[in-house]
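forwarding from the other thread:

> can someone predict this with glucose-6-phosphate?

sure thing
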Amino acid sequence: MEIKRFTSYKAYEKLSHLSQSPIDLTVGDVVNADRIEKYKVSQNGFDYLFATQRIDDQILAELQNLADEARVVEQFMAMKQGESINCIEGWESENRQVLHTACRDIFRAIPSAPEATETAKKELNTLERFLADLDSGVFVNEKGEKFDTMVQVGIGGSDLGPRALYLALKNYLLEGREVRFIANVDPDDVAEVLADINLETTLVNVVSKSGSTLETLTNESLVRSVFQGAGLDPALHFIAVTGEGSPMDDSSRYLATFHMYDYIGGRYSVTSMVGAVSLAFGLGFDNFKELLRGANDMDLAAESRDMQSNLSLLTAMIGIWNRNFLGHETVAVLPYSQPLSRFTAHLQQCDMESNGKSVGRNGDLVDWKTGPIIWGEPGTNGQHAFYQLLHQGTTVVPVEFIGFRSNVYDLDININGTTSRQKLVANMLAQSLAFAIGKKDSNPNKNFGGNRPGSVLLGERLTPYSMGGLLALYENKIAMQGFCWGVNSFDQEGVQLGKVLAGRLLDLMVKAEEGSECMASEISLEESLLRAAKIL
Ligand code: G6Q
């Protein structure tokens, strides 16, 4: 499929023109009930409220034209159907298919990428059997006891998504079960996680697509040594998720091995075995399947070319409006949901690693803005911290609020006529209006300029199904923005560079300088820095 330059689209020119005088949200009562009702899309259990964006009908129509001209949905379909889109024309690149969506397309007789879905189903069946064997006592510890805890060891894409979703859905934990995560090569991370668990009833799930990531292999060795030190046999306690044929793909070292495939990028791998093993162990296989169902339903909705019935596309294009036409450098994703406390961190990776690119898929440098900086923390906590800058700072930060009408747990209290849940949601809605409308005051220090764009994504309740939908919504949004910008959202040369540099520096440290007897552990920090500088 021929990819044109982003700035060559007719709609780009029109939007550039429209961006010179976008709607002023502070004038009169422009953000009124009619506007709020008008700029609302309800889909897959979510209401997306975007009246507080600086858009109008004409801008939306041109954003639709831009999506059509860039053939965003056609590219999305090509991705789902297994075209090798992870490449840079004319240059050495990963040159792979991109098929994370196939992992959840397991509910239809004819999926979009039948072979990849068949493979995913087989892995799921293997996992289901493994979990049943844990339940029935086929796999037990040295004393014949069942396992109740899983420690996932992995980093980046092999950590952030599974960890964020586990925290989000912790209230679905099977009785007595728990999952912990170790990512950092800082040994203190390992020490802290292992400090207060019963190693005897713990399974360690080592997750690495490449099977060669320094941090993960180091942490695996450290955890193994702790198990051995406690007189436990790692062969009974360690399982692995890795790429087929990777250096870690050695069944003699693990009680069980699950596979993921080169067509699933690390940051898009939560719905593959990378997330499946720990999530299904903790939450139960059926809940994990519900998560897949929610994600798949969102993927199916993302096939519509009409933005008004495709939340993934609509949110992608509104993001492009803010980034390329209103010129905003960052986006704050602010979940008003404590269980989503690590979801922004996951999105930060997914978005910034995917669209933090300066080269188009045709190998040319881009001369338009690509991915923004993504950051954020849960509300209302953030209101007592960085919202000052969001309201009155010199940088305008578009805000994406995420919230739910109902609690996850039953606990709540009514104080002064409102429940805690009502206070939470009311705060979120009030903030979104305040950013948009501002507040006039003759005292300049108390004046709020407004016109700060944002939107609200409101779901009924955080469940495995809605979590799957939310995850897929953002994954699709990110991929669609990449399609529109004409970049490859599926490679990560910047991350690779870090891995190569770390490996080379450590090699140098071990060898020390030619002829030197000095051991790595004796090399000073200053010396390490000098060596790093030489490598660069
Ligand atoms: C994700 C990235 C990166 C990767 C980690 C871990 O898209 O490529 O975050 O997931 O570096 O890699 P492994 O799974 O290969 O250990």
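The pocket of glucose-6-phosphate is lined by residues 155-158, 208-210, 213, 216, 265-267, 353, 492, 495 (CB under 6 Å). thats all i got for now
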